[in-house]
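Quick illustration, no need to memorize.
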Amino acid sequence: MSNLTYSSVAISGAPGAGRSTLLKNLRPVLEPMNFEFFSGGDWARQFSIQAGKHSVDDPTHHLATDYGEDIDHKIDLALREKLSDMSVHVAVESWIAGWNMRELPHVLKVLLMCDDSLRIDRIVNRDGVSVEEAKKHLRMREESNLGKWSAMYNVGQKDFWDPKYYDLIINTYAHGPKQTLDLVLQAMGYFKSHTV
């Protein structure tokens, strides 16, 4: 493990903001440095399928209300406990990963922001649905998921993406995938310890 500024990175943001793309782009850079990679959404999707609430063939994403609060607590607590250990190196993405890692100074907390129109366009291309379906699905997921987590943790829905909890905020409408990756690697101190 080289001398990075942070031992782990937690990526947050709304659907379509670019979390999965950033995680995928970090993999070839950080994997040789013994980083693990984790998608909260992929893990939770399996619970949704197991509960019979979401079809494995459905390209759209599941709802957090497809399963009980115990699943959310299990995921959030497991990740928080794991990333609390400075000797562990993890890159994780989920809607509220950064908020979940608040007050852990050794974890780089990244918030990805994006214009709604581009987020909708990305969902259309990713899931193969119409613009109206993408709009409706995004609105339903955000109201459902954020409402559930807000009640669970007794915080306002806007708190999860409050800039005060984040070390780095990137507008992925203004920055493409390569620029976004470079901004994260720069914040992690990667370029200081590697010649690229």
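The first strand starts at residue 8 and ends at 13.
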